[in-house]
Write a structure and sequence with these properties.
alpha/beta; Rossmann fold; seven-stranded parallel beta sheet; about 15% strand; globular; binds nicotinamide-adenine-dinucleotide
Length: about 280
């Protein structure tokens, strides 16, 4: 088989959580462009429906579902609905995540004392862990359930969105966000080990700063904040979401058939040196 043919996803199908926006939407576009039937799920049902319709209008095979990853029943239903529509599920992106604030994007919030450990709001901590870590667990749990049932298929590929914050201690990133993403990394390694016997690969993408709607779209709304972030990145700029598509396709497709348990950085070199405060 020619190298490029290994990226072809014709006859496969995949589900993406947090697909109405940003990195999740780029994942959905990437696998649809490679020939897969895709389900876009999001807590923002309107956004998922809008983007799925846009993909259909562009000639791809897309559907949508409303799914809040804080609710196991909703995650299970989204996978069951996907399987009912497609006869199985080959690819899953556990991507939904959020920043609960305290300085990830906004210099104003950095001055908020809530960002200090000794006064940190436990409700913010719980929310971040519930979505960024437990939400990944719920998604991988249900993906594994339906992929193990792929008896007539070729196993599956699960891709988790981690962060460079899983590797480096970034003072400007939310405290629970770092803890959640580090947890995601190690959970991914166990899931990859356990599911290898079923032909299911599990990997994580660890992005550095991408221009998305995270943090209420702070960097989209504030050119000065975007320029400040650009200066923190060794390659000199934040990334656009289209730049994550080739990596997503590598991990989702047979091109990545010998990759499992990998935590792949795509961060413009952010892990190479200390991140200076804004
Ligand atoms: P984004 O805000 O553009 O997209 C996140 C999507 O997740 C949104 O559509 C949102 O509605 C959805 N979402 C939020 N809570 C949800 C829930 N409970 N259930 C289902 N969907 C929910 O942000 P993004 O930057 O594209 O974030 C995607 C992932 O990338 C997250 O896991 C984030 O932590 C990670 N990440 C982003 C960056 C970055 O610089 N943008 C860097 C590292 C990691």
């Amino acid at each position: 088989m020619k190298t490029l043919d290994q990226f072809d996803l014709t006859g496969r199908s995949g589900l993406v959580t947090g697909a109405a926006s940003g990195i999740g939407l780029a994942y959905a576009e990437a696998i649809a462009e490679a020939g897969a039937k895709v389900t876009l799920t999001d807590i923002d049902a309107e956004g998922a429906a809008r983007e799925a319709q846009r993909l259909c209008d562009e000639g791809y095979e897309a559907r949508w579902d409303s799914c809040d990853v804080s609710d196991l029943a909703q995650v299970a239903a989204a996978f069951d609905n996907h399987v009912a529509a497609n006869g199985g599920c080959d690819i899953a992106f556990a991507n939904a995540g959020l920043d609960v604030g305290n300085g990830f994007w906004s210099p104003e919030e950095k001055r908020n004392p809530d960002g200090q450990i000794d006064v940190y709001d436990p409700a913010r901590w719980d929310k971040s862990i519930d979505i960024n870590l437990s939400g990944v667990f719920r998604t991988v749990r249900e993906a594994a359930r339906v992929m193990k049932a792929n008896t007539d298929r070729r196993g599956g590929s699960i891709v988790i969105t981690s962060s460079n914050a899983a590797e480096v201690n970034e003072a400007i990133v939310g405290v629970p966000y770092m803890a959640a993403k580090a947890g995601v990394k190690h959970f991914m390694r166990h899931a990859a080990y356990e599911l290898a016997a079923y032909g299911i690969r599990v990997n994580a993408i660890a992005p550095g700063p991408f221009v998305t709607n995270i943090g209420d779209g702070w960097v989209k709304k504030n050119p000065a904040a975007k320029q400040a972030w650009d200066k923190l990145v060794p390659v000199g700029r934040m990334a656009e979401t289209s730049q994550i598509k080739p990596l997503a396709l590598l991990l989702a497709s047979d091109a990545g058939s010998y990759m499992t348990g990998a935590h792949v950085m795509i961060d413009g070199g952010m892990q190479l040196g200390p991140v200076k405060p804004l």
